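User: Predict structure, ligand histidyl-adenosine monophosphate.
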Amino acid sequence: MIKALKGMKDILPPNSKEYSYFIENSINIVKKYGFSFSQTPILEETSLFKRSVGESSDIVGKEMYQFIDKGGNDVCLRPEGTAGVVRSFVEHKLDRKGGVNRFFYYGPMFRYERPQKGRFRQFHQFGVESFGESNPLEDANIILMLKEILDFFKINYTLELNSLGCPDCMPAFREKLIKSLNNIDGLCHDCLRRKETNPIRVFDCKNKNCQTLLKDAPRLNQHLCQSCKNDFDTVQKTLSSLGVKYKIDPNLVRGLDYYSKTAFEFVSGDLGAQNAVAGGGRYDKLVEFLDGRPTPAVGFAIGIERVLDMIKIEEDEREGYYFGALNSEAITPLFKVASKIRKTSKVLIGYESKSLKAHLKASDKANARYCAIIGEDELKENRVWIKDLITKEDHYIDIEQ
Ligand code: HAM
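Assistant: Predicted complex:
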């Protein structure tokens, strides 16, 4: 038997119902904030992710599904959605039109990680990207939108915030951090590598020894320039004034290189070790970095599998009709009646003629509200016998009705 690949899973009923329930309701919410649907290819040039997510990140360094296609192109299954949306924004010259463009997307992402609870190699994200708005109120606005989505699904979470600085304050901080790291002995192999490639990543290290060693290392949020400080204050003040609780986490650096200024994560104690439900932030330099005109941007992505782990939706109520025939001549007329009723209701058809008892059983299994039967007599009299499977009442109706 051929099985799905490790870390990849099928989405089948009943979980598929929760998946579409999540997508439909999230779309309703983001549309109210002015976001429009966008879809980009799953396969992109590898260089797109190297340049955006960053060579120093684990995602690009260790986790890419990268291969050479039949035309000799170096391509990659997207590990995340932002890079593709930015590529498409620049390719379609939206950076030259000005104004604000807001997009949402959802679909599969691929990371060759070690699978565990809440961590897959193919997983799904629902994400948004907003281009053209530098005002930090947009950061606050999309955090509120994300909160609204998670609240809709009654998910428990903590919102964690940090500011990752900008090209004005980051270089000096980086030097200071490297100096401090040079005075620490015993950092793990990964942190030594991070020191060379992207030193702030050391704060993301899961190694307890490193975390202790880094306790007194300088933190970004104490070394922000005035502009970063002001913007971060605005985000915090706006959230506080609306009663949104948050925690400043000076170790929150995110796993992707493109961020500047506000970064945030929603984490949940109801998940296991993989506790991030959603994450995002501002990335004001990425459009320019991918050859577009300087355009401020901010976005987030939700891990759909992680949310679905926490969503409970009620059992489906009985719905629609099941149509069955008692003799083979009645099967074709069933289609005629079914297509009429299907204009307003869900209709399933039993293709084999069988006993009333067998049809009632089949309609129960199909979770139909009504079992509708046509037999020899009904055909002659041009009527259908209908039983309501909730009230248990039955009656005849005229086919023409
Ligand atoms: P990210 O934090 O890498 O951000 O991923 C967002 C969410 O995807 C995570 O919080 C988590 O819920 C889920 N996720 C990540 N990896 C896995 C996995 N292996 N298995 C299951 N779920 C996973 C981004 O991807 C950015 N593009 C978000 C963003 C959009 N920033 C700005 N705009």
